[in-house]
Amino acid sequence: MTERAPLEPARLAFTAQGVPYSEAYGDVYHSADGGLGQARHVFLGGNDLPARWRGRPLFSILETGFGTGLNFLATWAAWRADPQRPQRLHFFSVEKHPFGPADLAVLHERYGELAELAQELRGQWPVLVPGFHRLHFDDGRVTLTLAFDDARLALPQIAGRFDAFYLDGFAPARNPELWSAELMAALGRLAAADASAATWSVAGGVRQALAAAGFAVHKRPGFGGKREMLYARMTSASAADDQDVARRAVVLGAGLAGSACAERLAARGWDVTVIDRQPGPGRETSGNLTGALLPVLSLDDNRLSRLARAGFLYALRHLRALAEQGLHVPWQACGVLQLARDQVHLENQRRIVERRGFPAEFVRWVDAAEAARLVGREVAGGGWWFPAGAWASPPALCAANLAKHPVRTRFGVSIAGLEGTEAGWLLRDDAGTAIAEAPVVILANGLGVKRLAQAAHLPLRCFRGQVTYLPEAATPLLDIVVCREGYITPAVNGVRCVGASFHASEEPALRLSDQEGNLQRLERMLPGYGAGLAAAVLDGRVGFRPVSPDKLPLIGPLTCADAPPARTLRELPRWTGLFTAAGYGARGIIWSALAAELLASRLSAEPWPIEAELADALDPGRFILRAQRRPGLPYALAGWGMADEE
User: Fold this and answer.
1) Are residues 47 and 153 in the same domain?
2) 200 and 102 share a domain?
3) CB neighbours of 99 closer than 8 A, spacing ≥ 6?
4) What is the CATH number of the domain that holds 90?
């Protein structure tokens, strides 16, 4: 894994003629003859759009250099205006130095005809942190994925096939890395059959690099003062990694994992049936009254941190989208304060924020005095303040996921076995009765996945988590989430949640010792907050968390337990049409939406929402490889207590 440098935003500047200008590269963002005109002539027209996308279920575009966003806005406007538009439009853009929303507002002022779309774009604009950011517009039919990263690092991490390429970096003389033979070869590997590419540059090196990548290159009349531009067409393309399948699926589990998978598939028009042994959604692991949403930070910005950040930000966008559609989910972006465990940890927290260069709207290090002001009372010390951190109701989120699109549900049904058939998979209940059949089955039923033969080998362990309920009337005012070896949430329906214990146990009854342990965690966070509360009279809830050896979820196609030796994940044999979304541990509320988007993208042959190396870090087959590298080690133990090697 390559450690990324902190993100450096673009600085707003203009030429004497009023053209947006990059001081870092000494070049303009678009032609002096007009940015919107250039977008329509060079990039839409140069790729023969909208004609080439008409009547297609999906059309995907990859852009090198998002800049001011005009190319995306012009493409989105053209899609809206075309009655024969594709059902879904994917626009994937790489930007090393993104603008902030305030600067984008200034840049968009002169394009009144795009004002509505530009406002929607800025309304969802991501916080400026590194990584892939997926945004949905027009009821999910238009998807924008922004890769805030150096293109040389980002392009090899993009998974998907693209029908058109917008090559819109700064001039080759100013930014040669963005036009190199290596970068064009990366585009060639991402090209769908008969893909096209267009750019305003006709430099000889660009033509040669495109030709070497498999494109047939031609010149066309240019825009404005430029006499010529380039148009290219892919002459050969590699096979897609993921093939689109019959769009019918059964999802086992109606908790956070399963309901999110159902929602993301149904958003793409899939026929989805959800089966759960409980009488309703969110009744088991996802049944806590509230859950906290916050990212994970590390000094080297490791895979866990990058995945948790992406999941946290995508979950917030998902919650806002549900609210905008009128689906009731109690939640609030009230902010989360994560207190340091001790002085050493506090100093490490400060160093992480400084080294990663995160913006204050994402995270801020605060001392004990400021932490006390945020809470409104004495605290144990300083720590991280996440202004966008939130709490949400997991059961309500599960219900909203299932209500957002047409989804069939079958509650009170327990699945005991899967049988492969010509049509896919047949699901049988405890009595052996056939319950459902589908070409795709997603196992998202928590620890229940191990009751099925095809997934019994997954190295998941059960960790018991007990939450203590505090009556709002008996506790001081608290309107943010506070964490430190535990957590306390604002009151919901008159109850605050304090938790949580974490033991390898399957004991379902409330334990007095765990109630006392939760109150002790509370005292270490907020001294005196729980004074007068007796553990013996407090209520609570026990949940069981499925946890993997490396604490990351298992998301993707299931591998056969007796797989022959393989060198890479790609070489491992998989069960056709059988997937899992499991192992969320205590972070289901931030993993679930993004994990579901990843699975739905793979199943629908769409570009993935996260970097390929991060998807590999979630692949259920990773433990098979680890076991194969340690002959004699039982698969179920592969990774437990071991260093992460991948």
Assistant:
1) yes
2) yes
3) 9, 10, 12, 68, 107
4) 3.40.50.150
- Structural domain including 400 reads 248-284+396-455+551-637
515: nearest Cα among 470, 471, 473, 547: 470
Number of domains in the chain: 3
The CA distances from residue 158 to 16, 360, 579, in Å, are 38, 28, 21
563 close to 541: Cβ distance less than 8 angstroms? no
Q: Are residues 38 and 153 in the same domain?
A: yes
Instruction: Give the Cα separation of 247 and 241 in Å (integer).
Output: 18
pLDDT bin (cut points 50, 70, 90) of residue 641 is very low
Residue 67 structure tokens? 């800049």
H helix or E strand, kind and range, residue 558: strand 554-559
**Cα Dmax for the chain:** 82
Instruction: pLDDT band for 643, please (50, 70, 90 cuts).
Output: very low
- At 153-165, the pLDDT tens digits run 999 999 999 999 9
Determine contact, residues 143/90, Cβ cutoff 8 Å.
yes
Two tokens, residue 40 = 């329509």
Starting at the edge strand found earlier in the chain, the sheet holding 487-488 runs 364-366, 383-386, 336-339, 481-483, 487-488, 495-499, 461-471, 540-547
